[in-house]
Amino acid sequence: MGILKDIEDKRQQGGKIFALLIDPENHTPGSIRAFFGEAGGDAADLVLVGGSLISRPVEPVLHALQEVVSVPVVLFPGSLLQLSGEADGLLMLTLLSGRNPEYLAGNQVTAALMIRSLGLEVIPTGYILLGSGAGTSVEVISNTHPLPERKKDIVLATALAGEYMGNRLIYLEKGSGAPEPPDPGLVRSVREILTVPLIVGGGITSPAAAEKLYRAGADMIVVGNAIEKKASLVKEMKRVAESF
Length: 244
Ligand code: 1GP
Prior knowledge:
The chain is an alpha/beta fold. The chain is about 40% helix and about 15% strand.
C-alpha cells in the first residue's frame, strides 16, 4: 500500500496528516461501524489502533475497521498481544526515551518472525515519551521514565539518535489523556533537527492545539481520547489538517 511513502510524499508537499487513534479496549465492532458510518470511512487520513492494556482479542475491532474505513489501518501496539494480520501496517516501535531492554530490542526480536508472516507494511518508528507529571499508562506499562520536556537537549539528542538508528518516523508522545499536549516550541526544535516525518500526540483536545502543533512542524497529529469523548471533533481535526 505504501503507507510510509504516502506520509513522506505528503511531507514533501508541505501537507499535514491527521491520524485517529482507536483504543480497541474502548470499542466493539458495533461502535466502530456506528462511528465511521456517521463520520465517513475517510474521517481521518490514517487510523492507528492500539492501547496500553487490552482484555480481549483485537481482531473483531480490526475486522470491523477494515469493513468501514477507506484509509490505512495501522497497528500502534501497546504490547505483543496487539499484533494482527487484520491491519495494513505496523508502527514498529522502539521506546527510545526509556532504558527498558524489552522495549529497545526484546519485544522486537520476539515478534519479528510473526510480523513477517502477517504480511503487514512495517514502519520503523522511534517512540519518545515526554513527561507530563501525570504518570501515564505508557510509563507504568513500559516501566520507563519519560523525558522531561524542559531537558530540550536530551529530547533533541534522542530524536536525532532515533533517525540515525534508521527509524523512518519519530513519534513525540505526551501519553494518551495527558493534561497538556507536547510543547510547540519543543516540537519546532525537534522538527528542525530531523529530516524524517514527525508524529506528535497525547493530550491534543482542540483544533487550535492541533493547528499550533502542525505550524510548529508536526507532520502528523494523533488524537484519541478527545474524539472518544466528542465524536464531532473528528471533522474539525480533519479540516485543520486539510487547511495546510
Ligand atoms: C496516544 O498520542 C496518542 O498514544 C493519543 O493521545 O488519547 O490523549 O489523544 P490522546
